[in-house]
Each structure stands twice: as C-alpha cells, then as structure tokens.
C-alpha cells in the first residue's frame, strides 16, 4: 500500500482516535511546543469513562485539560519530565508530579523497558513526498517513546516547522496508527524576557570568557539571552553551537555573522540542538534549514559527545548556590520550579572539553514575597532544595560582582571565592555563617 492510501485510511477525528485509551493506560504526550492541545482536549472529554490513566509529558507549555478537568486526579494522573510555568502552577495545587532524570539518559528509559507506553499522543508536520512526517521543534526522546508505544496518534499541524536532522527527526506514515487533522494553530511562542541591567553586567563578565571559535550552549532565561545579544553585537567570530535548547538569540548571532561552526570538531558547520523554544522568528529560521541539525537528547546531552568540541562555553541559570558550591536550579526549598534538564550534562561535558567552561550564572540577590532582599549565595541551601549540580562537579559561578572558579579549591577557598561575588550587603553575615560551619580561616580575604 502506498503511503497516501495508508495516510487516508488512518485519518480519523480526534474523538475517534483517543477511544483507544483504556483505564490504567500509560499515555505519553509530546515534548515542549510539540504537545498537542487537540488530542489533550479530546482525551479530557473522556474523563468520566476512564480511571487511573497515567500521563507523562515533557515541559508542556499549557495546562492540559486532562489535569485541569480532574483536580482530584481520580481519572488522570499528570506528570512532567521538565516543568514549564504551567506545570509549576499545577504542582502547587497537587495536580502534577515531577519526574527526576539526567536528561541525556531519557531515551534509555524507554529502550530498557522501564517506562511502558500504551498510547503516544504527538504533533507532527504533514507527510512529505516520501511519506515521512517531521517531529518539528522537539526531538529529545519523541522517536524513542513512539517506538516503545503500542499505539501512536499524531496531530497533523501545517504550522509546524520541518526541522532537519541530525537523527531520528521523522516518522514514516507506516509507523503511526492514527492521524488527526489539527486546527493548524501556530506553535506557542515564548514571551519576551526582560533583560535587566544586572543581567547585562553578568553577561559582560561571561563575554570576557568567550574566545573566537568557541562552541556555545545557552539555557533558558534572561541571562543567556543577554549573553546572546552581546555576542551578536561583538566582534567574535567562527562560533559554533552544540546546545540542548535553541533560542532566538542564536538566530541573532547567526544573522550577525558570529556563528558559522567552522572550528567545531564534531558536526562542523552545523547548529546542533535537541529542542527549540522561542518566537516565530526562531521557528521560521528552523524550517527546512540545512544549517541546523536536530538530534535526540542522548546525543546532544551526552557529556562524552559534548566534550568532543573544544572550547565548549556552557551558560546556565540557578536559583541559589551555597558556600560549599552546591547548585540548586530546579527547586526553591521543596517547591518544584523547573527540572534538572541538561544543566548537569553540560557542566560536566564542558569540563571534559579542551578549553571548555561551564558557567552557573545568577543574580546576587532576589526579592522575596514579603518584599525583602535576599542573597542567592547562601551558607547552606534552603531546606528541601534539590541539588542540581553537586559541589564536586560545579565549575564556574558568575554574579554581577564577578566570577568564581571552584575546581580544585578546598571548602574554605570556595567560601572565600563565593563570598567575594555575593552582594556586599550580605558578605559579613556569610562570613559569620562560614566560620560557624568551619569553612573559614583567618587568612581569608573578601574584596
């Protein structure tokens, strides 16, 4: 049977397609912007017919109707591998659970059979002339969980950019059980992130760590965007990209002539990534662009792959860092904010890279709910906070007051280096706490 006949035969309504979901099934949604609101809404309609359906997603950018329609979780139990803002709000109401992982390992969970999948609900492009649909802007483990699923249902959306590989960025019509025509709603766009003067000061320090020919990884948030903006305006040249997440600032750097990837040791000339989140500018840039290569996350985030490019510069945010050098980037106390994501992968991979640097970047202070200024550099992490990067792996920490390199330093040397980049208003208090915690010596100096 030719693919066109097969595609026509498998095309049904969303309501018809999700009838295959049974009580107690394990259902996997898509990833990031490739989550299907169409299939989620259809499944939510079946709430009263179903119990114990276990749903997993990867950073769903909207609150799924399966979760919001069932706050007591009698019918659907919703889980997220990496929290979005929507997941965070659901978690606060006990309507979503986080799934801890080291990101590059995710595909192996399905390959090893640890996560049984009954039904996969994904979003794709229309088939090309060869009968292949493209997985769009997210490829971290989609193909792997579709391989593991007993049934695959795909929403077809003509607004999805065709993101070239890389590897495993397509599925053939024969690999999908049902197709549902979506409403062609454009992909969700990230709102503009305000870049503050403090962000710019930190970005300026980071810029001083980047040399011509470096290979970049940027995380999400104002800080990485500020770095990207400064690079676009700089005279740096021959930069490469090997990143987990692709954001708008990479487009700006490319169009400014800063990125060509010609000095990369691996995937020379290619902008390598595993998912993209940004504005329509980014999605248009990716569509059928042979300069970009989307890979599964067990490639992009494997430290043994990352380090094969020299001068890896990896830039990521954090919530807080303690004087021992531990980094908390995913929770504030016991409140889940985000996920481990690729931060650990890239900090470790950057150290193994010849000339590489892994930078944890954070503002020195924040304002709490009571309007009081608090230090992000703390004597010890907030009780209940999850360690994202252990002190033994942490490399560089950057605030608007400077940069601290922690490798090879004793506990008292780390404390000294971190207090030197803390906000001046908190340094005396931090010294007292360091003394109490026996990580301070009389010869220590604070600038």
Automatic annotation (TrEMBL):
Localization, UniProt: Cytoplasm
Binding residues for CoA: 219-223, 319, 342
The protein's Enzyme Commission number: 2.8.3.-
Single biological process term from Gene Ontology: butyrate metabolic process
Any one Gene Ontology molecular-function term assigned to this protein's record: acetate CoA-transferase activity
Domain Acetyl-CoA hydrolase/transferase N-terminal: 3-184
Keyword annotations from UniProtKB, A to Z: Cytoplasm, Fatty acid metabolism, Hydrolase, Lipid metabolism, Transferase
Keyword Protein biosynthesis listed: no
Catalytic activity: butanoate + acetyl-CoA = butanoyl-CoA + acetate
Functional note: Coenzyme A-transferase that converts butyrate to butyryl-CoA.
UniProt family annotation: Belongs to the acetyl-CoA hydrolase/transferase family.
Name by which UniProt lists this protein: Probable butyrate:acetyl-CoA coenzyme A-transferase
